[in-house]
Amino acid sequence: MEAVLEEAGRVQQAPAEPFAILHEDEQVLAVAKPAGVASQPTLTGDVGTLPWLVARHLGRRTAEVATVHRLDRETSGVVVFGKTPTATRALAAAFREGTARKEYQAIVAGRLEGSGAIDAPLGPAPGRKGAYAVRPDGAPARTRWEAVAHLGEEATLVRLLPETGRTHQLRVHLAHLGHPIVGDVRYGGPARAGAIEPKRFLLHARALALPHPSGGTLALEAPFPADFSAALGLFSLERPPEG
């Protein structure tokens, strides 16, 4: 079901509630963001964005939903929100201080073997509005990676553990490694790899563990969406890799 809204002369289509709730208590809401949904209001408004959808679920105004971390529009996976100002501050501090442990999975071009780490500072790409690049004067950025499975020579499923949270970090780091994400044409990724021909770049925020505002650790995991699962099926895995 879709809602059709007219706002400031614009008619916008918005899915009714296209996310799965992964966890909810009095302080925290965790959802699985679908690919194609923006993590924050856009220049054309907030209708259909993740904060707007969360606000509808909570019965609040969009302005009352604070974003503590973001995923790119095409990236799917775990996103958390605080339901109180105190919880929001605590969650934001976990990301700012590096106590939030994130795991992503991606399907990249070519055959990548083994594991390693990418230490490459990132900053705005000259002459490319909104894009980022490895540059010596950029902000420090580090990503650990591990090859999980191969689709012949065409593609590799990789597990990614970012130790910093720079904009487009994983996308740029993988391109820098010579294995851009399949579907990520902005950073040199192929539109197709073997039988994989996605409508978006194949990056998924699989798992997140961080301190709960009330104490203890909140461990979250988002199932693979249909397009990612379909691509995984081509790798002949006995089961999807665990997060």
Structure description:
With 243 residues, this protein is of the alpha+beta class. It has a single domain (2-233), classed as Pseudouridine synthase (2-Layer Sandwich). Helix content is 16%, strand content 34%. It contains 4 helices and 13 strands. Strands 3, 4, 5, 6, 7, 10, 11, 12 and 13 form a 9-stranded mixed beta sheet that branches. Strands 1-2 form a two-stranded antiparallel ribbon. A hairpin with a 3-residue loop joins strand 10 and strand 11 (155-162).
Class per helix and strand makeup? alpha+beta
If classified by CATH, what would the architecture be? 2-Layer Sandwich
In the CATH hierarchy, what is the class?
Alpha Beta
Summarize the helix and strand pattern as letters: EEEEHEHEEEEEEHEEH
Unreliably modeled segments: 1-16
| C-alpha end-to-end distance | 31 Å
Gross geometry:
globular
Nearest-angstrom radius of gyration? 18 Å
Please report the number of helical segments: 4
When the domains are counted, the total is 1
Q: How is the CATH topology named? A: Pseudouridine synthase
**CATH superfamily descriptor:** Pseudouridine synthase
| Residue fraction in strands | 25-35%
Tell me the helix content.
Answer: 10-25%
Instruction: Report the mean per-residue pLDDT as an integer.
Output: 90
* DSSP strand count: 13
Major sheet summary line: 9 strands, mixed
